[in-house]
Design brief:
elongated, 189 residues, 3-stranded antiparallel sheet, single chain, 6 helices, Arc Repressor Mutant, subunit A
Length: 189
């Protein structure tokens, strides 16, 4: 009898793990943009769905099996659902209780704009081995439209990091200044 109870407990635990992984896939998929690890943690912990350590393990497991893709930009980790993850989610999403799906849908509706805003301003840099320089890409995007995109070559990593930091910090002023300069009268003296 003891063996049976132990197996039942393991089955329940495994079911909860599967359900929680599906919940995470559902959340990331519904947001329609890669989510930062901190945004995923915020949701899971606020709603008391998953504890922090289990969450980290679930994310790592889903990356390992190919349901999530993990990328890191400027020390920020992002997760997005892969095609394989979408197939699994489509097949198993009915296992997520309707009230939980509704809660996630409401959370996405409330938070989607602020999450997307994080993606509307980008600043990244890449090392170019062929010329020993760094390429810095800064941009402002609205929905699917590029409002402004700058690509610069700089000689040092520190300079690239500084440009990215200043772009994010001062993007509104910089965008306004660039627009004014480009649309203003040119004085030929």
């Amino acid at each position: 009898m003891r063996q049976q109870n132990s197996n039942d407990t393991n089955d329940i635990k495994n079911f909860n793990q599967v359900e929680n992984k599906l919940l995470l896939l559902y959340l990331i998929d519904k947001m329609e943009v890669p989510l930062t690890q901190s945004k995923i943690s915020q949701f899971a912990l606020e709603e008391n769905y998953i504890n922090y350590f289990s969450l980290q393990q679930f994310l790592a497991d889903m990356v390992e099996v190919g349901y999530l893709e993990k990328s890191t930009v400027d020390n920020t980790t992002y997760y997005s659902v892969t095609d394989q993850g979408v197939v699994a989610l489509d097949y198993f999403k009915k296992r997520i209780p309707a009230n939980v799906r509704n809660k996630i849908n409401k959370y996405v509706e409330i938070n989607k704009k602020s999450v997307k805003r994080d993606y509307e301003v980008i600043a990244n840099y890449f090392y170019e081995q062929n010329n020993n320089e760094y390429t810095v890409k800064c941009g402002i995007y609205e929905d699917e439209t590029t409002l402004l995109e700058l690509i610069l070559s700089v000689v040092s990593r520190d300079e690239a990091k500084l440009i990215c930091k200043n772009w994010r910090k001062n993007v509104n002023d910089l965008y306004g200044d660039i627009l004014k300069k480009l649309t203003g009268e040119i004085n030929d003296e």
